[in-house]
Design a protein that fits this description.
single chain; alpha+beta; six-stranded antiparallel beta sheet; 4 helices; 6 strands; elongated
Length: 181
């Protein structure tokens, strides 16, 4: 038997609807077709056959690196360096990160920080540049954040901080979502 909704029923329905809205917002903000794997540059270079310049072959390429993979399309975006934290073969204090986009067919396209909304030299690290650039970890993190922002990649839950998750939830709430019921 159907009965008309009373004020308590309406309040309960609104509370349920609000809870579902919040769950949907958080769930949609923390899911993405992109997966990030944190690695060292030497592994990224080896996995993808990146051509190491002759003067860099004897260096330990142990700077932080990232490999973003779109699990739906197979596209990849790599961030890596041929230099260590202290620079090139002469420990000149100058290093550079590379950004490489790989399409689903395996074609490789070198990218610039400008492609991700950063300054042209935002891929440089170390005190050997004039003017000196930030350290390798700071530059790496800035590049990763710019890539995630440009491609709409949500940070993995393990890498995200509560503050970054909240920022992402708020950002996602402000965008229309065609999948949203």
């Amino acid at each position: 038997m159907n009965s008309p909704m009373g004020p308590e029923d309406r309040q309960h329905l609104l509370a349920v609807h609000g809870a579902l809205e919040e769950i949907w917002t958080v769930a949609s903000a923390t899911t993405s077709p992109w997966h990030r794997e944190g690695l060292e540059s030497n592994l990224v270079i080896a996995r993808h056959g990146c051509q190491v310049p002759d003067d860099r072959r004897d260096l330990r390429q142990d700077a932080p690196a990232a490999e973003f993979t779109n699990v739906v399309t197979g596209e990849k975006v790599l961030v890596y360096s041929f230099e260590r934290w202290n620079g090139g073969p002469d420990k000149d204090g100058r290093g550079t990160y590379r950004i490489l986009r790989i399409d689903p067919s395996g074609n490789q396209f070198p990218q610039s920080p400008v492609d991700y909304g950063l300054a042209e030299n935002a891929d440089r690290f170390g005190g050997g540049w004039s003017p000196p650039a930030p350290g390798d970890h700071s530059v790496f993190e800035a590049l990763v954040e710019a890539i995630q922002t440009k491609l709409g990649i949500v940070p993995d839950a393990l890498d995200a901080t509560p503050a970054s998750e909240l920022r992402e939830v708020r950002r996602r709430r402000s965008l229309p979502d065609p999948r949203r019921p």
